[in-house]
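Internal ticket - ligand job 380, manganese (II) ion:
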Amino acid sequence: MKIHEYQAKDLFAAYGIPVKSYILCRTPDEVVSAYSQLNVNKVVLKAQVLTGGRGKAGGIKLADNPQEVQTRSEAILNLKIKDIPVDRIIVTEAVDIKKEYYLSIVVDRNTKSALLMLSSDGGIDIEEVAHSTPERIHKFQIDPMLGTPDFFTRKVAFTLFSDIKLVNQLSHIIKSLYMLFIETDASLAEINPLVLTDDDKLIAVDAKMTFDDNALFRQPKIAELFEPTEEEKKERDAKSKGFSYVHLGGEIGCMVNGAGLAMATMDLIKRYRGNPANFLDIGGSSNSEKVVQALKLLLKDDDVKVVLINIFGGITRCDDVANGILQAFEQIETDIPVVVRLTGTNEEAGRALLRDSKLYVANTMSEATRLAVNISLKTY
Ligand code: GDP
Ligand code: MN
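stdout (structure tokens):
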């Protein structure tokens, strides 16, 4: 689960990580009065959206007079950043930047511990740094039994600074960030940039945190901050119907029974150079009610150009499944082509039932997948 920068900054402040105070606004007028309330010359206006790269997209702007504040906040509030409309903006005192650094803590699955990363190439796209100059990112595994004792955080801080005053400041920030990370069950806590100001203070100018969804049950304060995206709403809706659904963004809507078969189906679609719209495991039995629900879910996605139904009839017999599918299509009107592959118990009978319908029936998984991909690419 993601949270906004301003929410992460509240957490930072509570844990003693230096941040500038902010005022949250929803309209340009609110921004203008926030500007006079802050009573500083130069401010930064920052779009609050649950995605990165706001700076590049025009969502971060400096301003130093009321007119600028007005026009620039209007511009930001009219933006869409990676398709997400900006509905909130924070106004905060601008800092004078001497240098930008990068600092983060993530869960490292390989070492089963938290990984601390820092770099003097802050501010810019860290993925780019990791790609082109990986040696400029310093990584330290945090021993879960030891946490962040002084000797460790100082050793780490010396990779960026030699001045002991800055080492001590950074050392304190690392300890606080780690405590916050652990106590909130975070999966990422990132400061990019961590700024060194003209008067030699370290300040978190940006704040990004994500949390482990599986731990939200014991993090009620964090869970309260959840703002589901349209996709997440759909995923939750699917979960409540007993499906396991993940939106993937491609054109082939997939309906599969069993997680393993669903994953194999995604793999095969990719292999034939297509793109799955989703992962959908409709679970063991496949009655018509389930097929109707699943189909409705898939067809809600405007990107879906073809539906691929891949069912293994084990305990449920393929002829029952075929009847379920036919009944489902009596209830649902759609022009979207549908490819069906049934295998397992009574598969011949199942396929025979579908033969006179407008559904495309394939015998094998690769045949079905290739057909679905060709339809999605308009080469069929
Ligand atoms: P992001 O693009 O979504 O990561 O947003 P950031 O909050 O990281 O801001 C992007 C960039 O804007 C930073 O790397 C800085 O260069 C610049 N910026 C942000 N806040 C300030 C500020 O207070 N003063 C100055 N001079 N630049 C800032
Ligand atoms: Mn940033």
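Auto-summary: The first strand starts at residue 22 and ends at 25. The domain at 97-223 is CATH 3.30.470.20 (D-amino Acid Aminotransferase; Chain A, domain 1).
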